[in-house]
Structures are given as structure tokens and as C-alpha cells.
Amino acid sequence: QKEVEQNSGPLSVPEGAIASLNCTYSDRVSQSFFWYRQYSGKSPELIMSIYSNGDKEDGRFTAQLNKASQYVSLLIRDSQPSDSATYLCAADSGGYQKVTFGTGTKLQVIP
Amino acid sequence: KAGVTQTPRYLIKTRGQQVTLSCSPISGHRSVSWYQQTPGQGLQFLFEYFSETQRNKGNFPGRFSGRQFSNSRSEMNVSTLELGDSALYLCASSLSGGDYTFGSGTRLTVV
User: Fold this and answer.
1) Which of A63, A94, B64, B76 could disulfide-link B60, Cβ–Cβ 3.0 to 4.6 Å?
2) How far apart are CA A23 and CA A65, in angstroms?
3) pLDDT attached to residue B97
4) Do A45 and B45 count as a contact with CB atoms less than 8 A apart?
5) Which runs of E-coded beta strand occur in A1-111?
6) Do B42 and A101 touch (CB under 8 A)?
């Protein structure tokens, strides 16, 4: 069974710190990976996608992918209270395979 | 551009009834995926439609069905509702793959 696993948290970081969110996946054929942010009572919002090994930066966000270790991470620099949300990791095996989501990590940024 | 529109936002139904949920994707997006979100299970894949064809289906009973119309609008139907069907149902629109734009969801409560 294809799985995406995340620590449920909560992960608490002080304002201005770096938040590090991690995700592992079991399906080796997974090709594309996504990070979604979900505020309480809202629907998920795509914040990062990554398709090849290495780092991808977008503003304060950096996604990291290591396919050999089947590991994806999201770094949030200069964390703000507005970053407090649940972060969902997702893996897409491509073709007609469904996108599998982890159960999410709750991030709390303490002012 | 207009986002993903889901209707209705809230529904209260009685056990044994059936329900139909609607989703209008972003213009030009031909892929519509449906997910069930519950606190305990996270996002669970229901099915994906692309150009009116169901390309993939999750592990849900046959009471859950869906369809897609030629204008890419999609509906999902749940028959013989059970208490356990209470959840947030999310529609996700994409060109293809996991870079989804989610609708606001339909909150279904079965009593």
C-alpha cells in the first residue's frame, strides 16, 4: 500500500526561527511531490511542488527531495504566526495513479 | 481567474438518504479529483475524472459514485448514507497530476 507519512506534531517554533517539516513516502515510483498548507476550517492550498532531487526555493519556503531516501522536507525560514497551520505532504506516482496525502503536520509559530 | 466552486457548502442528511455534491473546476482544467477528509483519516482519495472518464478510484464502497460532464463539471453521489460518511468532501481541480487547486469543500453531516 502506498503511504506518505508525516509526524502529526504539533511542531512549535518561535517567531523568526526555521521550521522544518518532514515527510517519507513508500512508493518508489512516485515522481512528483507537493506541500499543501491548510488553515483550520479551510481547504488545502498548494505552496510548493518539487519534481527532482535537490532543493527548490520560493521566498521563505524551501522544498527538499531525496528520492534515494524517499524523503521530502519543507523548510520555512523566518517563521511567522501566520504560518501556523497544518502542512500536508503529497506524492503523485504519475500516469493514472492517485495522489496520496500524508495526514499532515500541525505547525505552531509562537510570537 | 475563478477558483474551484463546490456546492453546497453545508449539508445535513439523515441516515439512509442519498446526497449529490457538485464541483465546477477552474476553466481549462479537465481533471477533477474528489477527496474525503476526516480528523482521524486525513485526506482519502475517492476518485478522479478526466475528460468525462473515471481514471482512478479509491477504496470506498460502491455507495460512492461520481461523474463528469462535458464542461468538466463533476458530481459525486453517496447513496444510503451512514453516520461514518460525515466528513468534509473536497474537490480538486488540475490540468493533470497533483498540483491541485481545491474547492472550499462540502461539509456533510449525517444524523
Assistant:
1) B64
2) 10
3) 76
4) no
5) 4-5, 11-14, 19-25, 32-38, 45-50, 54-58, 61-66, 71-76, 85-92, 99-101, 105-110
6) yes
Secondary structure class of A15 (helix, strand, coil)? coil
- Identify the three-state secondary structure at position B35: strand
The type of residue at A68 is: A
Sign, CA torsion A22/A26/A31/A36: negative
Chain A residues in contact with chain B using a Cβ-Cβ cutoff of 8 Å: 32, 34, 36, 42-46, 49, 88, 90-92, 94, 96-104
Answer for the pair A7, A107: CB distance below 8 angstroms, yes or no: no
**CA nearest neighbour of A47 among B75, B52, B101:** B101
Which residue has 521566498 as its cell numbers?
A59
Instruction: Write phi, then psi, for A8 (nearest 5 degrees).
Output: -70, -20
Do A92 and A49 meet the contact criterion of CB atoms below 8 Å apart? no
- The 10 Å Cβ neighbour count of residue A105 is 22
Give residue-wise pLDDT tens across range B46-80.
Answer: 999 999 999 989 999 999 999 999 999 999 999 99
For residues B41 and B88, give the distance between their C-alpha atoms in angstroms, rounded to a whole number.
11
What is the reported pLDDT for A2?
65
pLDDT at A99 over 90: no
